[in-house]
Amino acid sequence: xxxxxxxxxxxxxxxxxxxxxxxxxxxxxxxxxxxxxxxxxxxxxxxxxxxxxxxxxxxxxxxxxxx
Length: 67
Hints:
Blueprint: H1 2-24, H2 35-47
């Protein structure tokens, strides 16, 4: 049993660190864009085959934006 205690401890510590990193991640609000700006960004992304990130205007109970 002593042999496995170290294994369980390190595995538990790694899992706790993973959970803490997930909790520490906070999405900052992105500035609101006009329809013209959105159209320009989408056009450039389409021409250059790039992806875009969209932030929905919704927050959780703690006031943070969703992923």
